[in-house]
């Protein structure tokens, strides 16, 4: 096999000028630093092998010229040339030149076309499309990760089976078309055969159908003549009746005009009386307002007078109580003065008695000097002898004296405390009386205040509620007005709508429990967005009247006819034929049942809604509605939100402005409710404003309440002060005094007992001392003539002590009485001053009461005058009201007469209208009968006139005949029909029932025959001609079928030939690769346990589907290619590349940095395999950066940038044979190259 010898580049990409790369050995590595242009060697080889520009990393071919990528191309041309040496030594050169934006191809320096160039490359084993000798940088791993379809395409390029794709598809398309034509002609032949059989049947049916038509025609003529005959008889009768009724109507109208004039005159008189009554009402209202102002003034004056009178009564009662207290105080003073006078008399008597006693006893016993000395000596002896006892006795006497003084003090205190206690009791009694008066006054004030408070609370509550309600009503009124303004539509009802509403109200009054109202008013959509859809689906039933039964509906219709009202539609609950709801429709997505979007408060109305809506569905959009209506296995009735209606019959009715106008009825219903609510709120507001006028009364009551509260507050404060402070203090003081009194009494008792006991002991000591004194003074007492010495001593000392003690007691008692008398006089003076102040207050209060009574009388007089005037106006109002009522009664009587005559006129007018309507209906019926004869070509004989003169009648909006219609009817009245062919029995019928019965019989006969004809398919009257035509078509279809079958057979043979060639090419390549890839993968892995296998997804035609590629790395379980490591994927890709290369070997193989993802172990395995294969299989050129890889190469080519020109173009060839070099030598060359490259790299 040949090999690549040299690569010559000139001004190509980074190569400036002419560069010669090579020669290339069996295993050559291209090395160089990053960015030096190693990959441009790969681009140069790709370019010269015919690769497209897009795969060369440039947008257009001129960018491949050196310097073009920076906008400075050094030349207008560039070229790449390879020198290929055959195994025989013959050289072949392949050159591709860039010139003027195009490529030139040269083979052996001869200019050739691209196709010749590519063919020459294929001769030496290089397939440009498959790139079977080039592996670009970064594409190794992507080869293993190709999708199955991409892998199939790769095999098609390698096997060249891809060249047959166009022919394969073309033959396959022709085969399909031929088979379709054959099938079409076969079906056509079958259809024509069926048509031939059908044509025979049509011929027989046409004959039977013609006989039925003739019989039906005769029956229709009899039916039309029967209807025309009795129609003319009815028209003559109605004309006669109409003349009589019109005469009666003219007379009744004259009577109606007379009664109408009388009613107008009475109404005028009633208007005058009504205005007078309104004037009186106005005066009464103003008088009532003035009275409402004066009456509170009178009440206030009366309350003020009552308050002052109560205050005066309290003062008078206080004076009476004070007088009683003063009288009692004066009695106490007189008693104290009497007691003081008695004390003075007793004291004077005592002094006088002492004087008399002194005079009576005379002089005292007097001692001589010797006796006195002797007395002193004896006294000294006694003192010495009884000194101890004397000391004890003196001690007891001192203690006794102390206790006696304390007892006397306690007794004095006892008297004082009793006096104070008496005064406290009197003060307590005074305060209790004051409390009674204050409580009585407080109770009166509280009763009055409670009454006024109740009135105030009632008025305040009423006024507050009124104000709150006024605010609420105003807010509701503003909201209602805002809603009415926001509605932005005409809210005025026309006379027609009003009349229809009045008719409905009249029906409700006649049948209150049976007439429910219009369907529109009884239900509404759950949301505004459904209004158009519901309106569309309701249709004419939207204003239908719902009634309970068929009988009520008939009665209502009869009433409408009598009142000459517009026709109405009635829905009777017991008459409706309601279909069951299909519950499955609720499960459909994108729609809702119409009955589910309508809300009503009347349970019985659900039947009506179910009848009107049926199983109708509502959808959001028109597309959804159309899809649900016609897109399923069965058709459904649907409506979109914009009103577009889809019926089961296929009819589509779109929404329109008229529908939007009709849908306004839902808003008008709301507006009617809003207007009614507005009227109610305005009336309620007027009533509330009347209640609000009571604020004046409230202010007056509040003033009275405030005054009463102030007085009550002062009284309660005083009462509380007396109860909680004064009276409590008095009670506390009384309690203290009582406790003190008890303590004094207990002290006195204790002291008295102690004094008695001590007196006994003193007496014992005194007796002992007296005995000693008696023994010592025995002779002395005998000498002076006294019983004992104590008698002598007492007469001189004790008598004087008793007198002094008595005088002291008189003085103390007098002092006490003077103090009490002074206190009582001061208290009396205070009470007299208080009484004088109260008398002055009473006198002033009496004068104020006189003034208040006068003011009260003036207010009362004004109120009485106003009430009298009010009563006078009320009497006048009663008289005026009575007169107005009398005139109103007369008006009512005249109105009844007028209404009776008017009803008679109405009845006659109804009768005229009914007769005219019946006449018009009969004329229209006659016209329609004649028109039917003309349209349906029913041959009736006219003695006068012609059916050709009959034209269609156009009806107005109110179904009234136009003048043109009347002219047509008059013209048709002149027509004379020949009834000689009509059966005499049918002419002799008189009653309407007989006529209707025979008419139904004739119609049934015609309908029966028409039904037979309808059920009998209309025959083809040209059946004979069709039969001949169908026979010819059958022969033609048979010939066409045979020709198409032959064509399909030929196409099948051609397709199978191409299919076999493509299958053989693809299978040959695939089987070779799938067999060799496993061995190659084992050699690359250096392990027999490694496995690689390819499997087609479509074994019969593998090129139509994908090809799976899986590998099992040594020592690992099977896993998808995605889960393998980067190195394992790279080895698997190389195995596939080498296997493919073994099928269609190229003379050389160029790999660009395939070792990038390999570790040192895998690099050693791959490089060893390449080394083995390059010995005798193919030439390998590898661009590598790893020393472990390129150290095994036969030759190295170094790429480096030139220093001076700063262009990549230098080639550094290393020795061509490295096998003899040692590792050290190889390292030396590498180091030299690196050092030289570094020295020359200038950036």
Structural class computed from helices and strand pairing = alpha+beta
The termini sit apart by 43 Å
Helix content: 55-70%
Quick one: CATH class of the domain at 1-133 and 1146-1243? Alpha Beta
Q: Looking across the biggest beta sheet, what order are the strands in?
A: 2-1-4-5-6-7
Average residue-wise pLDDT: 78
What is CATH's topology name of the domain at 1-133 and 1146-1243? Rossmann fold
Major sheet: 6 strands, antiparallel
The helix tally amounts to 25
CATH structural architecture of the domain at 1-133 and 1146-1243: 3-Layer(aba) Sandwich
Low-pLDDT segments: 487-493, 955-961, 1204-1243
**Computed Rg:** 73 Å
Strand content: 5-15%
CATH superfamily of the domain at 1-133 and 1146-1243: P-loop containing nucleotide triphosphate hydrolases
Q: Which outline best applies?
A: flat
Give the total of beta strands: 26
Task: Draw up the topology in text.
Blueprint: E1 3-12, E2 15-21, E3 27-31, H1 38-48, E4 77-85, E5 91-99, E6 102-107, E7 110-112, H2 114-123, E8 134-135, H3 140-144, H4 148-159, H5 165-361, H6 369-385, H7 387-487, H8 495-510, E9 515-518, H9 519-522, E10 523-525, H10 531-538, E11 545-547, H11 550-562, E12 570-572, E13 591-593, E14 598-600, H12 605-613, E15 617-619, H13 622-630, E16 638-640, E17 645-646, E18 652-653, H14 657-692, H15 695-776, H16 778-784, H17 789-935, E19 942-944, H18 963-973, E20 976-977, H19 984-987, H20 992-1015, H21 1023-1085, E21 1091-1096, E22 1107-1112, H22 1126-1143, E23 1148-1152, H23 1160-1173, E24 1179-1183, H24 1187-1190, E25 1195-1201, E26 1208-1213, H25 1223-1240
Parallel strand pairs: 3-24, 3-25, 8-23, 11-12, 15-16, 23-24
Antiparallel strand pairs: 1-2, 1-4, 4-5, 5-6, 6-7, 9-11, 10-14, 13-15, 16-17, 17-18, 19-20, 21-22, 25-26
Helix pairs in contact: 4-21, 5-15, 5-17, 5-20, 5-21, 6-15, 7-14, 7-15, 10-14, 21-22
